[in-house]
Design a protein that fits this description.
single chain; 347 residues; alpha/beta; 4-stranded mixed sheet; 34% helix; binds adenosine-5'-triphosphate; binds ligand LN3RO5KU; 5-dehydro-2-deoxygluconokinase; PfkB_dom; 5-dehydro-2-deoxygluconokinase activity
Protein backbone atom coordinates (compact mmCIF):
# COMPACT_ATOMS: atom_id res chain seq x y z
CA UNK A 1 0.00 0.00 0.00
CA UNK A 2 1.22 3.49 -0.83
CA UNK A 3 2.26 5.43 2.26
CA UNK A 4 0.54 8.55 0.96
CA UNK A 5 -2.67 6.84 1.95
CA UNK A 6 -1.45 6.86 5.59
CA UNK A 7 0.03 10.34 5.89
CA UNK A 8 -1.38 13.12 3.77
CA UNK A 9 1.09 15.97 3.95
CA UNK A 10 -0.21 19.26 2.58
CA UNK A 11 2.05 19.52 -0.46
CA UNK A 12 1.29 23.23 -0.93
CA UNK A 13 3.36 24.09 2.15
CA UNK A 14 6.81 25.59 1.80
CA UNK A 15 8.66 23.77 4.60
CA UNK A 16 8.77 20.00 4.81
CA UNK A 17 9.64 19.83 8.49
CA UNK A 18 10.09 22.16 11.45
CA UNK A 19 11.97 20.70 14.39
CA UNK A 20 11.54 21.92 17.94
CA UNK A 21 13.70 21.25 20.96
CA UNK A 22 17.07 20.16 22.18
CA UNK A 23 20.26 21.58 20.79
CA UNK A 24 23.61 21.25 22.53
CA UNK A 25 27.33 21.18 21.86
CA UNK A 26 28.94 17.74 21.57
CA UNK A 27 32.58 17.23 22.53
CA UNK A 28 33.58 13.84 21.19
CA UNK A 29 36.99 12.21 21.70
CA UNK A 30 38.92 13.19 18.58
CA UNK A 31 39.06 10.60 15.84
CA UNK A 32 40.38 12.10 12.64
CA UNK A 33 43.41 11.95 10.33
CA UNK A 34 45.59 13.78 12.88
CA UNK A 35 44.41 12.45 16.27
CA UNK A 36 42.88 9.10 17.07
CA UNK A 37 41.58 8.71 20.61
CA UNK A 38 40.93 4.96 20.63
CA UNK A 39 38.25 3.45 22.91
CA UNK A 40 39.08 4.65 26.43
CA UNK A 41 37.46 6.15 29.54
CA UNK A 42 36.62 9.83 29.30
CA UNK A 43 39.08 10.71 32.06
CA UNK A 44 41.93 9.46 29.83
CA UNK A 45 40.91 11.48 26.76
CA UNK A 46 43.03 14.53 25.86
CA UNK A 47 41.69 15.74 22.54
CA UNK A 48 38.08 16.47 21.68
CA UNK A 49 36.27 17.54 18.53
CA UNK A 50 33.36 19.95 18.74
CA UNK A 51 30.04 19.39 16.93
CA UNK A 52 26.49 20.66 17.03
CA UNK A 53 24.42 18.03 18.84
CA UNK A 54 21.02 17.23 20.33
CA UNK A 55 18.58 14.89 18.65
CA UNK A 56 16.25 17.33 16.81
CA UNK A 57 19.24 19.45 15.75
CA UNK A 58 20.85 16.34 14.30
CA UNK A 59 17.65 15.28 12.53
CA UNK A 60 17.33 18.80 11.08
CA UNK A 61 20.78 18.31 9.56
CA UNK A 62 19.96 14.77 8.45
CA UNK A 63 16.77 15.58 6.56
CA UNK A 64 18.36 18.69 5.01
CA UNK A 65 21.16 16.49 3.64
CA UNK A 66 18.38 14.55 1.91
CA UNK A 67 17.15 17.74 0.26
CA UNK A 68 14.19 18.42 2.54
CA UNK A 69 13.43 22.01 3.57
CA UNK A 70 13.70 22.28 7.35
CA UNK A 71 13.53 25.00 9.99
CA UNK A 72 14.53 24.88 13.64
CA UNK A 73 12.50 26.33 16.51
CA UNK A 74 14.65 26.69 19.62
CA UNK A 75 16.64 28.83 22.00
CA UNK A 76 20.43 29.02 22.12
CA UNK A 77 22.83 30.81 24.44
CA UNK A 78 23.67 34.43 23.74
CA UNK A 79 27.36 33.69 23.29
CA UNK A 80 29.91 32.14 20.94
CA UNK A 81 28.34 28.65 21.16
CA UNK A 82 24.92 30.06 20.29
CA UNK A 83 26.46 31.75 17.25
CA UNK A 84 28.23 28.51 16.36
CA UNK A 85 24.89 26.65 16.24
CA UNK A 86 23.19 29.35 14.14
CA UNK A 87 26.14 29.58 11.72
CA UNK A 88 26.27 25.80 11.37
CA UNK A 89 22.53 25.54 10.68
CA UNK A 90 22.78 28.37 8.13
CA UNK A 91 25.66 26.61 6.37
CA UNK A 92 23.55 23.45 6.19
CA UNK A 93 20.57 25.33 4.71
CA UNK A 94 18.33 25.03 7.79
CA UNK A 95 16.08 28.03 8.42
CA UNK A 96 17.18 29.78 11.65
CA UNK A 97 14.67 32.64 11.67
CA UNK A 98 12.87 31.13 14.70
CA UNK A 99 15.93 30.58 16.88
CA UNK A 100 15.95 32.95 19.82
CA UNK A 101 18.75 33.76 22.27
CA UNK A 102 18.39 33.10 26.01
CA UNK A 103 17.92 36.35 27.89
CA UNK A 104 19.35 35.61 31.34
CA UNK A 105 22.71 34.05 30.69
CA UNK A 106 21.45 30.46 30.31
CA UNK A 107 24.01 28.34 28.45
CA UNK A 108 23.74 25.61 25.83
CA UNK A 109 24.30 22.15 27.27
CA UNK A 110 27.77 20.68 26.79
CA UNK A 111 27.87 16.96 26.04
CA UNK A 112 31.13 15.14 26.63
CA UNK A 113 30.97 11.69 25.14
CA UNK A 114 32.79 8.54 26.14
CA UNK A 115 33.52 5.70 23.73
CA UNK A 116 34.53 2.63 25.73
CA UNK A 117 34.05 -0.18 23.21
CA UNK A 118 31.93 -0.99 20.16
CA UNK A 119 29.22 -2.03 22.63
CA UNK A 120 29.54 0.61 25.34
CA UNK A 121 29.45 4.40 25.23
CA UNK A 122 28.20 7.08 27.61
CA UNK A 123 27.42 10.76 27.71
CA UNK A 124 28.35 13.25 30.40
CA UNK A 125 26.04 16.24 30.24
CA UNK A 126 26.68 19.71 31.61
CA UNK A 127 23.19 21.05 31.47
CA UNK A 128 22.17 23.26 34.37
CA UNK A 129 19.89 26.13 33.33
CA UNK A 130 19.99 24.89 29.76
CA UNK A 131 19.38 27.54 27.12
CA UNK A 132 17.23 25.29 24.92
CA UNK A 133 14.72 24.82 27.76
CA UNK A 134 14.20 28.61 27.81
CA UNK A 135 12.11 28.43 24.63
CA UNK A 136 8.84 30.16 25.58
CA UNK A 137 5.31 30.57 24.26
CA UNK A 138 6.34 33.97 22.87
CA UNK A 139 8.81 32.19 20.57
CA UNK A 140 6.05 30.17 18.89
CA UNK A 141 4.67 31.95 15.84
CA UNK A 142 1.54 30.56 14.20
CA UNK A 143 2.30 32.23 10.85
CA UNK A 144 5.61 30.37 10.74
CA UNK A 145 4.22 27.02 11.86
CA UNK A 146 1.46 27.00 9.31
CA UNK A 147 4.04 27.16 6.49
CA UNK A 148 5.19 23.60 7.22
CA UNK A 149 3.92 20.16 6.26
CA UNK A 150 5.02 18.73 9.63
CA UNK A 151 6.38 19.62 13.05
CA UNK A 152 8.74 17.31 14.93
CA UNK A 153 8.71 17.56 18.72
CA UNK A 154 11.63 16.14 20.65
CA UNK A 155 10.43 14.90 24.05
CA UNK A 156 13.31 16.48 25.96
CA UNK A 157 11.70 19.87 25.33
CA UNK A 158 8.87 18.82 27.68
CA UNK A 159 11.15 18.37 30.68
CA UNK A 160 10.82 21.90 32.07
CA UNK A 161 8.98 25.17 31.77
CA UNK A 162 8.92 27.44 29.83
CA UNK A 163 9.91 25.05 27.02
CA UNK A 164 7.10 22.66 28.06
CA UNK A 165 4.38 25.27 27.45
CA UNK A 166 6.06 26.32 24.21
CA UNK A 167 5.77 22.72 22.95
CA UNK A 168 2.12 22.48 23.95
CA UNK A 169 1.34 25.78 22.21
CA UNK A 170 3.20 24.69 19.06
CA UNK A 171 1.27 21.42 18.95
CA UNK A 172 -2.09 23.18 19.44
CA UNK A 173 -1.34 25.65 16.65
CA UNK A 174 0.03 22.94 14.38
CA UNK A 175 -3.16 20.94 14.75
CA UNK A 176 -5.40 23.78 13.72
CA UNK A 177 -3.23 24.49 10.67
CA UNK A 178 -3.05 20.97 9.23
CA UNK A 179 0.60 20.54 10.19
CA UNK A 180 1.30 16.84 10.89
CA UNK A 181 2.83 16.16 14.28
CA UNK A 182 5.78 13.82 14.66
CA UNK A 183 6.72 12.96 18.24
CA UNK A 184 10.24 11.63 18.72
CA UNK A 185 10.10 10.65 22.39
CA UNK A 186 13.86 11.20 22.74
CA UNK A 187 14.07 10.48 26.48
CA UNK A 188 17.13 11.77 28.28
CA UNK A 189 17.10 11.36 32.06
CA UNK A 190 18.61 14.75 32.78
CA UNK A 191 16.23 17.63 33.56
CA UNK A 192 13.27 15.36 34.41
CA UNK A 193 12.20 15.51 38.06
CA UNK A 194 10.09 12.34 38.30
CA UNK A 195 8.52 9.61 36.19
CA UNK A 196 4.93 10.81 36.63
CA UNK A 197 5.86 14.12 34.96
CA UNK A 198 7.33 12.16 32.05
CA UNK A 199 4.16 10.14 31.55
CA UNK A 200 1.88 13.19 31.91
CA UNK A 201 3.65 15.32 29.30
CA UNK A 202 4.80 12.61 26.91
CA UNK A 203 1.32 11.10 26.73
CA UNK A 204 -0.25 14.56 26.28
CA UNK A 205 1.81 15.11 23.12
CA UNK A 206 1.62 11.50 21.91
CA UNK A 207 -2.19 11.74 21.97
CA UNK A 208 -2.00 14.63 19.50
CA UNK A 209 0.59 13.04 17.22
CA UNK A 210 0.32 11.54 13.74
CA UNK A 211 3.62 9.69 14.01
CA UNK A 212 5.23 8.50 17.27
CA UNK A 213 8.79 7.13 17.34
CA UNK A 214 10.59 5.73 20.36
CA UNK A 215 12.29 2.82 22.03
CA UNK A 216 10.36 0.29 24.15
CA UNK A 217 11.73 2.01 27.27
CA UNK A 218 10.45 5.36 26.00
CA UNK A 219 6.97 3.96 25.34
CA UNK A 220 6.97 2.43 28.85
CA UNK A 221 7.76 5.83 30.37
CA UNK A 222 5.04 7.46 28.27
CA UNK A 223 2.43 4.85 29.21
CA UNK A 224 3.20 4.65 32.96
CA UNK A 225 -0.01 6.47 34.03
CA UNK A 226 -2.14 5.00 31.23
CA UNK A 227 -1.45 1.27 31.37
CA UNK A 228 1.93 -0.05 32.51
CA UNK A 229 3.65 -3.04 30.86
CA UNK A 230 1.89 -2.92 27.52
CA UNK A 231 3.25 -5.14 24.76
CA UNK A 232 4.30 -3.50 21.49
CA UNK A 233 1.04 -4.56 19.86
CA UNK A 234 -0.99 -3.13 22.74
CA UNK A 235 0.95 0.14 22.65
CA UNK A 236 0.47 0.51 18.93
CA UNK A 237 -3.27 -0.24 19.20
CA UNK A 238 -3.65 2.28 22.01
CA UNK A 239 -1.89 5.12 20.17
CA UNK A 240 -3.74 4.31 16.97
CA UNK A 241 -6.99 4.63 18.92
CA UNK A 242 -5.84 8.14 19.94
CA UNK A 243 -5.28 9.10 16.29
CA UNK A 244 -1.67 8.19 15.48
CA UNK A 245 -1.22 6.94 11.92
CA UNK A 246 2.23 5.38 12.39
CA UNK A 247 3.81 4.09 15.61
CA UNK A 248 7.48 3.05 15.45
CA UNK A 249 8.85 1.02 18.36
CA UNK A 250 12.62 0.42 18.48
CA UNK A 251 14.44 -2.41 20.24
CA UNK A 252 18.06 -1.39 19.63
CA UNK A 253 20.05 -4.25 18.09
CA UNK A 254 16.99 -6.53 18.05
CA UNK A 255 15.36 -4.35 15.41
CA UNK A 256 12.31 -2.12 15.17
CA UNK A 257 8.74 -2.26 13.94
CA UNK A 258 6.39 0.30 12.38
CA UNK A 259 2.70 -0.25 13.10
CA UNK A 260 0.24 1.47 10.77
CA UNK A 261 -3.31 2.48 11.61
CA UNK A 262 -4.68 -0.06 9.11
CA UNK A 263 -3.32 -2.87 11.33
CA UNK A 264 -0.23 -3.64 9.29
CA UNK A 265 3.23 -4.00 10.75
CA UNK A 266 6.68 -3.89 9.17
CA UNK A 267 9.95 -4.84 10.87
CA UNK A 268 13.61 -4.19 10.21
CA UNK A 269 16.95 -5.14 11.78
CA UNK A 270 20.12 -3.02 12.04
CA UNK A 271 22.69 -3.38 9.27
CA UNK A 272 25.81 -4.98 10.81
CA UNK A 273 28.63 -2.52 11.44
CA UNK A 274 31.51 -2.09 13.89
CA UNK A 275 30.06 0.65 16.12
CA UNK A 276 32.11 3.55 17.48
CA UNK A 277 29.30 4.64 19.82
CA UNK A 278 25.64 3.88 20.69
CA UNK A 279 24.09 7.35 20.54
CA UNK A 280 23.18 9.09 17.30
CA UNK A 281 21.65 5.94 15.83
CA UNK A 282 18.17 7.23 16.64
CA UNK A 283 18.87 10.48 14.80
CA UNK A 284 20.09 8.69 11.68
CA UNK A 285 17.08 6.40 11.91
CA UNK A 286 14.69 9.36 12.22
CA UNK A 287 16.30 11.28 9.35
CA UNK A 288 16.23 8.33 6.97
CA UNK A 289 12.78 7.07 7.94
CA UNK A 290 11.19 10.52 7.64
CA UNK A 291 12.89 11.20 4.32
CA UNK A 292 11.37 8.02 2.90
CA UNK A 293 7.97 8.92 4.30
CA UNK A 294 8.03 12.38 2.71
CA UNK A 295 9.05 10.76 -0.58
CA UNK A 296 5.97 8.55 -0.35
CA UNK A 297 7.89 5.27 -0.16
CA UNK A 298 6.51 1.98 1.12
CA UNK A 299 6.95 1.74 4.90
CA UNK A 300 9.39 -1.16 4.69
CA UNK A 301 11.63 0.90 2.40
CA UNK A 302 11.48 3.86 4.81
CA UNK A 303 12.52 1.50 7.61
CA UNK A 304 15.37 0.01 5.61
CA UNK A 305 16.67 3.47 4.74
CA UNK A 306 16.36 4.63 8.37
CA UNK A 307 18.06 1.50 9.68
CA UNK A 308 20.93 1.93 7.22
CA UNK A 309 21.39 5.55 8.20
CA UNK A 310 21.30 4.55 11.89
CA UNK A 311 24.05 1.98 11.34
CA UNK A 312 26.13 4.57 9.48
CA UNK A 313 25.74 6.94 12.43
CA UNK A 314 26.77 4.51 15.16
CA UNK A 315 29.86 3.73 13.07
CA UNK A 316 30.79 7.40 12.92
CA UNK A 317 32.54 9.57 15.52
CA UNK A 318 29.85 12.26 15.66
CA UNK A 319 26.12 12.80 15.29
CA UNK A 320 25.65 15.84 13.04
CA UNK A 321 28.59 16.30 10.65
CA UNK A 322 28.60 12.66 9.56
CA UNK A 323 24.94 12.45 8.64
CA UNK A 324 24.95 11.04 5.11
CA UNK A 325 23.52 12.25 1.84
CA UNK A 326 20.82 10.21 0.12
CA UNK A 327 23.35 8.74 -2.32
CA UNK A 328 25.70 7.76 0.53
CA UNK A 329 22.89 5.82 2.25
CA UNK A 330 21.97 4.10 -1.02
CA UNK A 331 25.62 3.16 -1.62
CA UNK A 332 25.89 1.83 1.95
CA UNK A 333 22.79 -0.36 1.47
CA UNK A 334 24.11 -1.69 -1.85
CA UNK A 335 27.48 -2.55 -0.31
CA UNK A 336 25.98 -4.24 2.76
CA UNK A 337 23.66 -6.29 0.55
CA UNK A 338 26.59 -7.37 -1.62
CA UNK A 339 28.42 -8.58 1.49
CA UNK A 340 25.57 -10.01 3.58
CA UNK A 341 22.77 -10.74 1.09
CA UNK A 342 19.67 -8.94 -0.16
CA UNK A 343 17.58 -9.64 2.96
CA UNK A 344 20.23 -8.56 5.48
CA UNK A 345 18.04 -6.06 7.33
CA UNK A 346 14.55 -7.25 6.46
CA UNK A 347 12.74 -9.46 8.96
N1 LIG B 1 25.60 -1.31 17.30
C1 LIG B 1 24.74 -0.98 16.34
N2 LIG B 1 24.96 -1.41 15.08
C2 LIG B 1 24.09 -1.07 14.08
N3 LIG B 1 22.99 -0.32 14.26
C3 LIG B 1 22.73 0.11 15.50
C4 LIG B 1 23.57 -0.18 16.61
N4 LIG B 1 23.04 0.40 17.71
C5 LIG B 1 21.91 1.04 17.31
N5 LIG B 1 21.72 0.87 15.99
C6 LIG B 1 20.63 1.40 15.18
O1 LIG B 1 20.22 2.64 15.71
C7 LIG B 1 18.82 2.61 15.93
C8 LIG B 1 18.46 3.52 17.06
O2 LIG B 1 19.13 3.08 18.20
P1 LIG B 1 18.38 3.00 19.61
O3 LIG B 1 17.36 1.94 19.53
O4 LIG B 1 19.42 2.90 20.65
O5 LIG B 1 17.57 4.37 19.61
P2 LIG B 1 17.74 5.72 20.34
O6 LIG B 1 17.79 5.51 21.82
O7 LIG B 1 16.62 6.55 19.80
O8 LIG B 1 19.14 6.29 19.83
P3 LIG B 1 19.82 7.71 20.15
O9 LIG B 1 20.76 7.47 21.29
O10 LIG B 1 20.52 8.10 18.93
O11 LIG B 1 18.74 8.67 20.49
C9 LIG B 1 18.49 1.16 16.15
O12 LIG B 1 17.12 0.91 15.90
C10 LIG B 1 19.42 0.49 15.17
O13 LIG B 1 18.86 0.49 13.88
O1 LIG C 1 22.48 14.02 23.90
C1 LIG C 1 22.85 12.91 23.52
O2 LIG C 1 22.21 11.90 23.70
C2 LIG C 1 24.15 12.70 22.82
C3 LIG C 1 24.49 13.76 21.87
O3 LIG C 1 25.88 13.71 21.75
C4 LIG C 1 23.93 13.59 20.49
O4 LIG C 1 24.16 14.73 19.73
C5 LIG C 1 22.48 13.26 20.50
O5 LIG C 1 21.68 14.07 20.85
C6 LIG C 1 22.06 11.94 20.05
O6 LIG C 1 20.68 11.82 20.02
Amino acid sequence: MDILSYIKFDQSKEFDLLLLGRVAIDFNPAYNDQVKEEFKPLKKVHMFEKFVGGSPANIAVGVTKHGMKAGFIGTVSDDQFGEYVIDYFNEQGIDTSQISKAQHGEKLGLTFTEMLSSKESNILMYRNQAADLQLSVDDIDEDYLKRSKALLISGTALAESPSREAVIKAVMLAKRNNVKIIFDIDYRAYNWKNNDDISIYYSMIAKESDIIMGSREEFDLTEKLIQPNMSDNESAAFWHSCGAEIVVIKHGMKGSTAYTADQQQFSIKPFPVEARKGFGGGDGYGSGFLYGLFEGWEIIDCLEFGSAEASMMVKSNNCSDSLPTTQEVKDFITLEKEIYGEMIARI
